[in-house]
Amino acid sequence: MLSQEVLEPRLSGLIAHLYDAAVDDSLWAGTAARIAETLGSTSTVLKLHGENARVNLLECTDNLMVSAREQAWADDWHRKDLWVERSVAYGMQRIITDEDLVTPEEQARSGFYQEWLRHLDIHHMIGAVFPAADGAIGVLGIHRPQGAGAYTGHERRQAALVLPHLQQALRLGQRFAAVSQSHAAALQALDRLDTGVLMVDGTGRVIQASSMAERLLHENTELAVIRGRLALRPPALHDKLLALVRGAMDTSRGKIAKLGSALAIPRPHRMPLALEVSPLRPSASAFGEQLPAVLVFIRDPEAPIAAARLRELFGLTRTEGAVAAALGRGAPLENIAASMGIGLATVRSHLKRILAKTGTHRQAEAVALLARSVSTVSNH
């Protein structure tokens, strides 16, 4: 048995690791092994028992893993975990050992011991059950074989020191995971928009850009990122952009700024890009206020429309979908006929069927509906 002088630094290190793992979930792997080592044990399991006998195995040592062929058998024993059932009755958040839960006689005849625990070479246990999120029961189980001896009072105190930190780390980890999921959902939503979105600071330095924004920057020479900052060509247009960004930044800081947030970006022989800026107000927290920023929205009116989505929405044929997508981009009927290699009369016939299927009565109504019904296509 390790001395207290050697073990206590390990205990402190374990507690620090739990909080590090709450911030960076990639560090959870190996946490069970670290708990087992700190408590002089051979195995550890962290799991959640939820409604309808659902068990979520969060982390365990490698020696508790079973083959794919045995997984259904293992899942069944996890659901019928005698220690968990008895621990809940004994008291939540109380450190218990196997000696508190079962008698030697019960061990001798229990299928849980004789079939499941014997397979894992487990006999002694120390741990606790505790309330977790969404009404689940958290389980900490630390084990060692019969020959290693029962857990001592000192080891009980060590487990009692670890338990509240483990609970808090799990709560923090779940909150961070929820925030991460919301962040990922926001980014995916931005990437699905038919508008490029950039977040910039007061100097135009790009902090983040959506996939559509990156595509527009790549495809349009009028847009650029120079030394990390959004730039427009020609210089006079860029000066107007900076003025809009500075005004929006002043607004985000709570100052009264001049009105004006939109800018048309001319392109030779093409429809202009539409640019708009909007202040992003910082949110205060106990850890300091976020820096103010500006959102820049850029839209290309000529970007291709997802014809497949139009077909799904309105029951169009493949050719009708192609015509509808061109109409949504504002293309005249003559241009559609020329680009598709069909006659103008044929395009008008398709238009008539598109009007009927979309429930519109005039070409202008159909164009407005088609242009706003689906996102533009992005290959990024």
CATH domain topology of the largest domain? Beta-Lactamase
What letter string, H or E per element, gives the SSE order?
HHEEHHEHHHEEHEEHEEHEEEHHHHH
Average pLDDT works out at 88
* Overall helicity: 40-55%
Low-confidence stretches: 1-7
Oligomeric state of the chains? single chain
Compute the number of helices: 15
Question: What is the number of strand segments?
Answer: 12
Write the CATH architecture name of the largest domain: 2-Layer Sandwich
- CATH top level assignment of the largest domain: Alpha Beta
Describe this structure in words.
Helices cover 49% and strands 19% of the residues. By secondary structure, it is an alpha+beta fold. The protein folds into 3 domains: 4-181, Transcription factor LuxR-like, autoinducer-binding domain (Beta-Lactamase, 2-Layer Sandwich), CATH 3.30.450.80; 193-299, Beta-Lactamase (2-Layer Sandwich), CATH 3.30.450.20; 307-373, Arc Repressor Mutant, subunit A. Strands 2-1-5-4-3 form a 5-stranded antiparallel β-sheet, sandwiched between helices. Helix 11 (307-314) crosses helix 12 (318-328) and helix 13 packs across helix 14 (344-358). The chain starts with a helix and ends in a 7-residue tail after the last helix.
Comma- or semicolon-separated keywords:
Beta-Lactamase, 15 helices, disordered N terminus, 380 residues, Arc Repressor Mutant, subunit A, alpha+beta, elongated, 19% strand, 5-stranded antiparallel sheet, 3 domains
Draw up the topology in text.
Blueprint: H1 4-23, H2 31-38, E1 43-49, E2 55-60, H3 71-79, H4 82-90, E3 96-97, H5 98-101, H6 104-109, H7 111-120, E4 124-131, E5 137-144, H8 153-192, E6 196-200, E7 206-209, H9 211-219, E8 223-226, E9 229-232, H10 235-252, E10 262-267, E11 270-280, E12 293-299, H11 307-314, H12 318-328, H13 333-340, H14 344-358, H15 363-373
Antiparallel strand pairs: 1-2, 1-5, 3-4, 4-5, 6-7, 6-12, 8-9, 10-11, 11-12
